[in-house]
Amino acid sequence: MQTLTLGPSGTYSHRAATAVSEDIAFTESVTKIVQAVANGEYDRGVIPIENSIEGSVTESLDALAEYDVAVVREIITPIRHALLAHDQSFETIASHAQALAQCRGYLDEHYPDVELEAVASTARGVQRALDDPSIAAIAHPDNVQGDLQVLAEDIQDQTSNATRFVAIGPASDRSEAGGKTSIVIYPNSDYPGLLLKLLEPFAERDINLSRLESRPSGERLGDYVFHVDFQAGLYEDRTQGALAEIEALAEDGWVKRLGSYDTEHVVS
Ligand SMILES: O=C(O)C(=O)C[C@]1(C(=O)O)C=C[C@@H](O)C=C1
């Protein structure tokens, strides 16, 4: 089963993808991963969804709302960043924007005057550092190679730093089994109490929400798409009952069932 994820080799997404398959291919944008799976070019994709320090990976949420794919698995991995460089003489630190943000406190304290460069992935930052001694990278310490050294380890602002990834597949692989479900609701309307009404069907059936995130719909200012994760499977009657009510409330918009799955923790 060929799995597409964020590359080049050595990213955290790559580490998470090894839990899904041994046959891994790389691209440098989350949107491209979701598009390639929706188009049937790859059986699986692995994308980051949210981080315990920095929050949502918004590009992933927007792509899940837009393209026709299923969430088939959830993978949670600890994220432990290292600072890699030829030596201490670097002037720039290159990494993924999420990784730079997860180390904000460390960087402010130790390198307040160093320029930060956001690149497509942590492993791309490592390649920049390999090619140029004036550049350091923030990435997993296993990326140390060539003339690079690990200058500091565990530089993330919280030791418990973790990122939740999902494995996606074609919409035809959507499962109703599993202890957790992801859906996206676009009500395409706005009136007092709408959000409360959309969430009440879960509370009434004792379904625990594990996440609620709003993203701009892109249609007009103040118009939102809601990403909801909850702890029940699509196969359950109570879930079907809740979704029927929500679909009636969102009749001018849509409700997308991304799928049910089980949570998995992978130690990196
Ligand atoms: O650049 C990487 O290594 C990635 O896999 C991306 C990513 C992200 O987008 O959040 C994944 C995990 C970490 O939170 C930092 C970066």
Describe this structure in words.
With 268 residues, the protein is of the alpha/beta class. It has 8 helices and 16 strands. The longest helix has 13 residues, at 237-249. The mean pLDDT is 96. Prephenic acid is lined by residues 6, 11-13, 48, 51, 57, 79, 96, 98-99, 121-123, 163.
Descriptive key words:
D-Maltodextrin-Binding Protein, domain 2; single chain; alpha/beta; about 270 residues; binds prephenic acid; about 25% helix; 3 domains; 7-stranded mixed sheet
CATH architecture identity of the largest domain: 3-Layer(aba) Sandwich
Bound molecules: prephenic acid
Shape: elongated
CATH fold group of the largest domain: D-Maltodextrin-Binding Protein, domain 2
Structural class: alpha/beta
Overview in brief:
By secondary structure, the protein is an alpha/beta fold. 26% of the residues lie in helices and 34% in strands.
